[in-house]
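Structure (tokenized):
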């Protein structure tokens, strides 16, 4: 695999420098969402796939990127990669986007998801897959396959529609509360975690993180 060293320094300084970080730059403008950040991080410790859902513009992408940087800064992720599926229309394009996102180049790229699974295996990896609703079925399959094959991988997906795959924990991103008089500024709307549709809970450990 083509290893790509950390490209961006995180907001907290040098935390991401020596790790393989392929994330959009961290935004200094990110505000609030303290509870969401903590809850999503906790779920990433327990579930292989966490999906941020919510209406358009509610802040799924911003929360996903901030969460990923937090995971890197806290050394809970040694490899962190981001892919936006908006340009994708087909399964082949989804796989190609994932291949590129983890930094695979040249002949190895032909191995598709096999190469991605290998690239993210053997170290704590976090893959942010943004805007899955644009190509829901291919995104579902890719997330499911990767989560099933790479035990050290966590997938943080954003999608207006839950992926509805077995190891999924859905986190609903709520609109941020508008600060009111007498209430501290920076309050956030919080969220609620719900099991994947039709699932009989995660208590049996299936799909759970190790
Ligand atoms: N916590 C935040 N602090 C500052 N800006 C934010 C925050 N959350 C969202 N934003 C800003 O609000 C806008 C919409 O957020 P974002 O793109 O994350 O929404 P989204 O839910 O991913 O939308 P879509 O479903 O269209 O992809 C962006 O400009 C983003 O930078
Ligand atoms: Mg988005």
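Design, position by position:
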């Amino acid at each position: 695999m083509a290893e790509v060293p950390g490209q961006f320094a995180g907001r907290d300084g040098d935390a991401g420098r020596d790790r393989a970080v392929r994330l959009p730059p961290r935004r200094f403008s990110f505000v609030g969402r303290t509870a969401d950040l903590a809850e999503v991080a906790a779920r990433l410790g327990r579930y292989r796939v966490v999906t941020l859902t919510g209406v358009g513009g509610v802040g799924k992408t911003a929360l996903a990127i901030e969460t990923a940087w937090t995971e890197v800064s806290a050394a809970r992720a040694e490899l962190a990669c981001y892919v936006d599926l908006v340009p994708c229309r087909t399964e082949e394009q989804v796989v190609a986007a994932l291949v590129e996102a983890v930094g695979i180049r040249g002949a190895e790229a032909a191995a598709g998801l096999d190469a991605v699974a290998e690239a993210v295996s053997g170290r704590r990896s976090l893959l942010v897959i943004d805007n899955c609703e644009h190509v829901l079925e291919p995104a579902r399959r890719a997330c499911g396959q990767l989560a099933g094959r790479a035990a050290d991988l966590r997938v943080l997906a954003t999608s207006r529609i839950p992926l509805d795959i077995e190891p999924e924990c859905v986190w609903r991103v709520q609109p941020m509360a508008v600060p009111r008089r007498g209430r501290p500024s920076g309050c956030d709307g919080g969220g609620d975690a719900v099991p994947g549709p039709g699932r009989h809970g995660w208590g049996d450990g299936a799909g759970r993180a190790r």
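Reviewer-requested clarification: The beta strands are 20-22, 49-53, 79-84, 125-130, 153-158, 168-173, 191-195. DSSP finds five helices and seven strands in the chain.
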